[in-house]
Amino acid sequence: MGEQSPVLEMTGIRKVFPGVVALDGVDFRMFPGEVHALMGENGAGKSTLIKTLTGVYEIDGGEIRLGGVPVRISGPLQAQQAGVSTVYQEVNLCTNLSVAENIFIGREPRRFGKIQWGRMRRRAAELLARLDLDLDVSAPLSSYSLAIQQMVAIARAVDVEARVLILDEPTSSLDASEVEQLFRVMRQLKESGVAILFVSHFLDQIYEVSDRLTVLRNGQLIGEHRVEELSQVQLVEKMIGKELAALEDVEDKAQRNRERAAEATPVVEARGLGRTGAIAPYDLTIHEGEVVGLAGLLGSGRTELARLLFGADKADHGELTVSGKPVNLRNPQVAMKKGIAFSSENRRTEGIIGDLTVRENIILALQAARGWTRPIPRKKQDEIVDKYIKALQIRPADPERPVRNLSGGNQQKVLLARWLITEPKLLIIDEPTRGIDVGAKAEIQRLVAELSDGGMAVLFVSAELEEVLRLSHKIGVLRDRRLIEELENTAGVDADRIMQTIASGATS
Amino acid sequence: MISIFKNRLFWPAAILVVLLVINMFTSRQFVTVQDGHLFGTLIDILRNSAPLILVGLGMTLVISTGGIDLSVGSVMAISAAVACLLIQDLDDQNSVGPVLLIIGIAIVVSMLMGLWNGALVAIIGIQPIIATLILMVAGRGIAQLITDGQIINVQSGPYATIASGFFAALPVALLIAVAATALILLLTRRTALGLLLESVGGSPTASRLAGIGARRLTIMVYVVAGGLAGLAGLIYSANIKSADSISAGNLIELDAILAVVIGGTALVGGRFSIIGTVLGAVLIQTLAVTVVAIGIPSEANLLFKAVVVVALCLFQSPTLREKVFGRLTPRSAAGAEVTA
């Protein structure tokens, strides 16, 4: 493969934003028929590099060659025409249109200006069949899971004769079997000579599917390696630029805390709490200083369970006591008054308010709880916000920047700050580490451990079993919208044990 | 220097200044003092802007939540009808106390109209444009029922004062508009109301999960919009000393929406600018006066207005500005290098 000439060569790429050098002379190349992982922490320049390649940004210096020919990519359409297709991190499709329409949007097969619907549907079905997908192409995209939508986005990207396919965090919302399906598709595409640029925060996935990887840090090229030449530990060191003992550190704390939590007083107790069609009735008790993890496959009811404890959805049977008193969580406001906080898995649509600044986003929940007639004095706002920007290392550390312009990991920290300043008794966090880098992930995990040390009860929902195992005192396992088992996180419990529980569906 | 051009209120302000300068040359009296009062074209413009400013203020709040209120014109008509009907029945139309009470009643009725809108939007969940369309259409009918289909004339000195009176050398109508603007500014920026409204408009789902009672806030903005429209209706009717259910506030909702947009508030909700709306309202009024002053034939009035508005909106577009003015500023200046 080394003898082949690269299909894509970027040399000395430079991109400057006001106040920041986002890319500083970065070289990057891709060969036909390889999966190339682009690695780096949040803010390392991965997204910027991808955006210069897809024509979202124009470069301030350097050269891009496609198939040996220098190109100037001035827009997404030009990028596509040059053979560079992209599937973005957040699925960018129109869920109200049909599957076929989504695949062919903007380039529908036409005759005399009229769209040939039959031909479009047929071609869409063929295309999907190549990816081993059997879908009703005339059904609206919204009737399929996020994972399937992702596949449709890939089908669309592949169909435009891509020489280079960019997959930006395609796996962040997929479960294990769907990831396998995606990898099968990726390998197929690789066989046919497509160069795939793969971005993921899951190291195991990188190692499973990639041939080569390029590491960026602070807008600079750190190195390009063949995957087998670099161990995971070495890779993480390159990305972070320092020894990463952080993750082990977190584990110790959780361990130490396990005994204590058992004797603590319960914060919430759910008895037969449920919501028809969303989650079967469940019993769950969360104590002070206890981290309860929820594990289960995508769509197993993890989020639905959590939402009932915040009144985000209303339970239609069962009862709930908070601090020993029965409550009816009609809406989030009631839950907040009882000291419950909830950070949604959908950061962008249910978390941040993009137009508002970091400061405004952080104080929002506290302000809502106080009511509009009692504004938090500006001086106090600045104090709180500065404190949390420092404590959670939110970057850039500019409270007046619209939160929309922050990276995913930093938006997540803003959301955590929003809830922490309300000083909740129970913090529910749904997928706080999805789509964020190793460094930020470790920071958030450490924070959760610290909060629980300080006596806060935490309900921690994550698709990553290791993370749940590392942090939780107790693990609730879900399957098919049912809480099937509650495991004390003792020495014998590991990822295999939980997988078995999920697979067997035991209700012991 | 560059930041001045980038300010979203730069172009409306610039066009307003240009229009005012034109008026300075065309009008016989731009600003003069007469009997201790200020008079002249400028004062007329400001005084006549009052109803549009009031309606625009309410519209800004409604739009910031992602809504819209088409019924403001009809509410103006209802408010005027209620006030004139009651004043007509007074034994002494010139006694201040009862007239003030009646003004209060008319405003409360207008707020109830707003409550109706708010309930349809926030409780029943009808889309704002449809919900307020109901009152927009039905409201004029209600006003006509109140006045029995007649134009009610009143001869009340105190009532006329709110439109044509003077206080401390300034028109009362203008003072009312200024006071309302100050009040809304205080209400939104000195409390957390503005932030919460912008949050609801920016993302209703995220706001709900942050514990914001969007329903109550939404109802509130429609009530405030109703009250302000009612006040505008009173000024309008006091000016002509009668309640005319057909023409009171006719099509004012469109000018009000335009004022909001010129002022830099996006129709999708979120960030809003009170000062921007006031600027927009004065601009629209000035434009109407200018058209007459520079002798544009009356049949071309609306066309002229359209051209100015389109030009303004183009200037405000960041994309277009980049294309037209981007070349004037060297690239390197825009992305000044600062080592991080």
Automatic annotation (TrEMBL), chain A:
Keywords: ATP-binding, Nucleotide-binding, Repeat, Transport. This is Sugar ABC transporter ATP-binding protein. It comes from the Bacteria. It comes from Actinoplanes flavus. The keyword Nucleotide-binding applies. GO terms for molecular function: ATP binding. The keyword ATP-binding applies. Residues 8-243, 262-505 form the ABC transporter domain.
